[in-house]
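Chain A, query sequence.
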Amino acid sequence: MRKNDSTEAPDRFQYLQSLVTEFQDTDSEEAKEQVLANLANFAYDPKNMEYLQELQVPDLFLDMLAEENENFVEFGMGGLCNLSMDPECRDVILQSGGISLVTNCLSNGREETVLSTITTLMNLATPTTRSKISEPGILQCMLRFSLAESPRLRNLAAVFLQDCCSEEQVRQAQQQMQGLQTAIGIPLPKK
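Chain A, predicted structure.
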């Protein structure tokens, strides 16, 4: 434990709390975007996980996935992506119905949002959630993404298929897609 940790913790919590309060109190879309981006960045540091959970930031990020503002969606998904690396935060996300909310973002038009979505789904994979994360529609989407021009999207989709699915599941999804031009009508995201 560093010497400053005991005094740093209350300051850290208060700062995060002030960000959440600012998000709730402001009417400015631009200010909300900035706060969400900051919270998403803070979600990357394991020191902040407990505070972010206490402040119900995972629920805030999940709520952003249904917003019309694409920046809200992107920052919300980025925050979930960061939080989902922590097992306790992952469980909070799962208990809040996170898989279906996250999965809906696979059809987002922004590549960054889709990359965060795929990574979040991989982080949410547990023995009990794997069957839901590797449903045929999701696999078909990943197969389509694995053919994308973008190397980042193509490679991440390939990793998803390798790490989250069995070879048999992938084979079945490929068979179901034969003759189809698109997977569930989901367009590839723009860079």
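The chain has a mean pLDDT of 90. The CA atoms of residues 90 and 189 lie 26 Å apart.
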